[in-house]
Amino acid sequence: MSDQRTPPATGRPAPHDVDDPYLWLEEVDGDDALAWVRARNAETTATLGTSRGFAGTRDEIREVLDSDAKIPDVSKAGPYLYNFWKDAEHPRGIWRRTTPEEYRTESPAWETVLDVDALGAAEGEAWVWHGASILRPGCRRALVDLSRGGADADVTRELDLETLEIVAPEDGGFVRPESKGGAGWIDEDTVYVYTDFGPGTLTTAGYPRIVKEWRRGTPLEEATVVYEGTAEDMYVHAFRSHTPGYERDFVARSLAFYSSELYVRDGDDLVLVDVPRSAEVGVKRDHMVIELRDDWEVDGHTYPAGALLGTPFDAYLEGQRDLAVLFEPTPTTSLAGTTWTRHHLVLTLLDDVTNRLEVLTPPADPASGGWARRPLPAGPEVGTVSVRAVDGDESDDLWLVTTSYLSPTTLSLAHLGDGSEPDPAPEPLKSTPEFFPTDGLVAEQHFATSADGTRVPYFLVRAEGAPLDGTTPTLLYGYGGFEISLTPAYSGGMGRAWLARGGAYAVANIRGGGEYGPRWHQLALKENRYRAYEDFEAVARDLVARGVTAPARLGIQGGSNGGLLTGNMLVRTPELFGAVVIQVPLLDMRRYTRLLAGASWAAEYGDPDDPAQWEHVRTFSPYHLVDPDRMYPPVLLTTSTRDDRVHPGHARKMAARLLAAGKDVTYYENIEGGHGGAADNEQAAFMSALAYRFLWERLAP
């Protein structure tokens, strides 16, 4: 197995490395690098970690994370509802199950299926749960993924759901060694496996490029190759649809972000599903839906980017192009998601970043007419509603979740009828407690005007009677990348640590995200990345112009791509902010494609090894834009040693460069946690408290 945590600094030419004095901090487990990390951690623990209010904030957040009153999120498999749960007694979590009838009670009785803490203790490993897949329809076996310390790389174990025992390899159990990748059920004795099979079997981004069929009782080395991609691909995997009567096998090849191919496996042959590579395809029973990222011309008709098309799957494979438009975007609307039930397709839409739902029913005979359509009542006005099928093969029931900044999350059960009568009102089942007082608080949506005149929405939560004199400490959060939308959600931790203390909270829906569909995302790709940053700056200025806050009282926070965002705010417009939090970030955009999964993000940012593309990438590489002579607001940088997605070297090197320039820098690196930054609730509460206390101490008057 290759060591994916070692930066591939020698794998490709690195013409710019010679002028990087902090390259040694990229050695993840290097003695000198870890000594530097421990010294910074000790400083932060001794200062911020012992400051007035830190322990109280940490404990308040921990109480929320450990609360027994949280909604147990469940998935149905066979006769059971399965849930993964963390609390004070189970810091790494337990996978457990109950019956649908029991789940309706106030205090359901749960059966523990797998205790991750106990397994880790028995094996001497810091296991972190990565999920499980249950073999349908019998639901007697599961493949469980576990990570050491929270890294993306994980192992797969087989679990017997009748005996509740891990199936040992000597008893024929499937065991996938540690690697980025996975395994998925074909049948009880066969799985697809896509993993590190040895030298040359991974992409340059560190993901599998080969998928194999592996039969029980045979060595992994003897698994049969199903598909082999190239080193330049991003990821290759395979899966089986187990819908009764419509069992099919697929191979998915990701060439890059926003570019993929889907194949149907027919014996030893693979049949390409002939759609644009930028489109996303879903197949359920005899239907296929195609979500477009780019305009697509078919038989003289152009379907717009952001549209959702439906067509009979088998007929499409045979060459028919009878496409029904299931959704077409407008300047304010986009498709946020799709969910299949037994007889219906539910669309989750965004209209100016507010959710609404539509239920579509395909015709029994495609020749008899189009898809029927009806609305499904959604959630709060400034809030979010999401749906999942309870069992898309067997019923038309939906889990419906509503949430907002000021309303605790509610889980309801909705049943979709045949459309001949109004759907019955959803039945509320569970609700999150009120973890912080909301009296006197108001959630609003506003729009700022960006530098090029674009209207940029943002949400603001504040005390309704607070004076608009610029004195309110305000936290502005953003992301702006990878077509990810930021919608309102209840956060007991944020509410306790920030709102309950008198702060205001804002979320910017900047370009690069998916709030207005693929066009909103594409407007900030590569050489146009600056638009995301101009949008964020416009929101910051609008908050000041409204009197909500002032630059000295305005803090910003972002992680991963959002860390790149806040890193750019630090070096672009430091005068706009009083404090900056940068979490698990990308910051060195000259070397990001050579570090861990960075090569897979070139479609988002551009390739810095191409001189022409480096000319625009360099304009948003914060590590290279630090000016020792410029004044910067205080900055907190956090990351994780076990983050094998975004290399911890980004945060380490940025902190070192700023410290060398004499700037106000606080740094903390969690040893565990992976890209999420924390492996359990204790670590998560500590890391969150660092951010909130850092901001409050520097922004509160």
UniProtKB/TrEMBL annotation:
Keyword Cell inner membrane: no
Regions annotated as coiled coil: none
Protein name: S9 family peptidase
Domain called Peptidase S9 prolyl oligopeptidase catalytic: residue spans: 498-698
GO molecular function, one term: oligopeptidase activity
Keywords: Hydrolase, Protease, Serine protease
Keyword Transcription regulation among record annotations: no
Gene3D superfamilies documented for this protein: alpha/beta hydrolase, Prolyl oligopeptidase, N-terminal domain
GO cellular component: cytosol
PANTHER family from the UniProt entry: PROLYL ENDOPEPTIDASE (PTHR42881)
Signal peptide: none
Region (Disordered): 1-20
Classification via InterPro entries: AB_hydrolase_fold, Pept_S9A_N, Peptidase_S9_cat, Peptidase_S9A, Prolyl_oligopep/macrocyclase
Gene Ontology biological-process entries: proteolysis
Domain Peptidase S9A N-terminal: 14-411
Domain of life: Bacteria
